[in-house]
Amino acid sequence: MAPAAPMPAPPLLLPILLALALALAVRGTRGCPAACRCYSMTVECGSLGLREIPAGIPPATQTVFLQDNGVAQIRQQDLAGLRGLQYLYLQNNSVSALEPGAFRAQHRLLELALNANRIHLLQASVFQGLDHLRVLYLAGNQITRLLDCTFCDLQRLQELHLQENSIETLAERALAGLSSLALLDLSKNNLRTVTHATLHPLLSLQVLRLTENPWRCDCALHWLGAWVKEEGRRLLSPLDKKIVCAEPPRLAHQSLLDVSGNSLICIPPAVHVQPAEATARLGDDLHVSCQASGYPQPLVSWRKVARAQAGPARARPPGVELSEHSLGQALDSDTGSGMLFLSNITLAHAGTYECEASNPGGTARVLFQLTVNLSLHQQQQQRGAPGTDVSQEPLYDLESMDFQALSVATQTAIAVGIALLALVALLLLAMIGRKHRKRKRAKKEENILYVNDYSDGPTTFAQLEEYRDARGHEMFVIDRSKPLFATYKDPEALGGPFPGLPEPVQDQATQTPEGAEEEEGEQEPGELFVNQGLVFQPQIAYEIHC
Asked: CA torsion angle for 485, 486, 492, 495 (degrees, to 10)?
């Protein structure tokens, strides 16, 4: 019996099969980003000029190569779907920003390469989620400092590569949490010092590289020299032991191991605040300088002291610490000199501030007192109505006796009192001046006698003698009945030495028309009272000058 012939496919089945095949093909192409190569569980996208992490990487991928591109930032959404990722290589890119929590979903990541990028600041939140990370490459970036607890989430980290950065400062707890770290490379940075407390959390450390840093060999590195000679033998290779001093100049280019402990010295800081206290008004800006000296150059910081600690400005001796609850947040810090900048001052700014200077040699602190006063207009606005009692006037610093801190009534009374005192002083000065002028005029008139006689005719010499000074002073007589005086500018009108004037009296016998007795003594012509430019009206009068 012949076998039955296969039944032909229904006419609609062929288009359905073609659509399924096309869908599978499209799905297969979506499993690998464009221009990348995908094989097994690896995606390779190196040297493609990418500006960001490409989308479409399969979720099951374990290794991603993105080196030698132009990726500028890493965001949370870029890696959120790659929960099985174990190796991520992003070296030689332009990464400058790491978004906090960018690796939060990468709990299985073992190795992260971010070397040769543009990272300049690391925050602790950046590495959240990397519970199993073993190796972290951060070499060749622009990192300048490591903050406290930067790597606290990397408790299983074994290798930390930080060489070839610009690290100047390691916070005391910058390496906290790295209890499993076996290799730490800090070579080729700008480190000048490192404290023993900074390396204390590294319980599993086996290799430490500190070469090619500008070390400052002072008392702060005394521990490092002793540590290298003892415990450091097992951690440092012969090359790593070459810790060369860059300063002070007397120790430059010398190995730390060759410098005696007595040569590693520090000078405790001395602090000076200018001004020591100040009074400001609402809305003012204030700059206060805190200068510190010592070696090495002290680190200066400002903080506000709680009201319970407020008091007059004074220096606190080194070693005396304030309790944590008495201090506010640090306001500013600098090396060598610190400026306290307060802008748009409010009443909350009033109080006591502390400038602290510290170096390995010790700590010094000085207080600064700030008082904030209201202007008259501002006081009225706060009170809402004038005439507030003086006892209720707000003084925003108990030690302040500033005029602006007084009430309106007190200020008005003081101003009126000052005005009255000034008026009394002016009146006294006027009275003294008036009396002085009267005395001067009376003294001048004591030696001048004026005689005018209009009723009985000219006064005779006999009558004039009654007015003479009892001490026999000489007399000069001017007859004003003569014509008007000629001026000195008219030489032709001058009939003699002094025209219009009688000759000086030589003796009584020759000058007395009515036969009066002879007067003894002669008159000097040079003492004649003459005013050549004066013009008199004709009248009968005599003047006697004694």
From this structure: 20
Indicate the number of domains in the chain. Answer: 3
13-42 as b/e: b if 16+ CB within 10 A:
eeeeeeeeeeeeeeeeeeebbeebebeeee
What per-residue confidence (pLDDT) applies to 96?
Answer: 93
CA distance 66 to 93: 8
How high does pLDDT run on average in the chain?
75
Cα–Cα dist 326/320, whole Å: 13
Instruction: Say if 230 falls within a structural domain.
Output: yes
Spatial distance between the Cα atoms of 303 and 393, rounded to a whole number of angstroms: 29
**Residue 352 forms part of a structural domain:** yes
Write out 86-115 in H/E/C secondary structure: CEEECCCCCCCEECCCCCCCCCCCCEEECC
Is residue 131 in a domain?
yes
Q: How far is CA 45 from CA 4, 64, 102, in A?
A: 56, 8, 20
Same domain, yes or no, for 74 and 209?
yes
Tokens representing 102 are 């960018």
H or E stretch at 441: helix 408-445
**425-460 tens-digit pLDDT:** 999 999 998 888 887 776 555 554 445 444 455 555
Radius of gyration for the alpha carbons in the chain, expressed in angstroms and rounded? 53
User: From CA 489, how far away is CA 487, in angstroms rounded?
Assistant: 5
* Domain end point (choices 359, 376, 393): 376
Determine contact, residues 372/338, Cβ cutoff 8 Å: no
- The residues, ordered by sequence, that sit 6+ positions from 335 with a Cβ below 8 Å of its Cβ are 297, 298, 299, 300
Cβ neighbours of 393 (radius 10 Å):
17
Tell me the whole-structure pTM to 2 decimals. Answer: 0.57
- The pair of structure tokens assigned to 175 is 């390496």
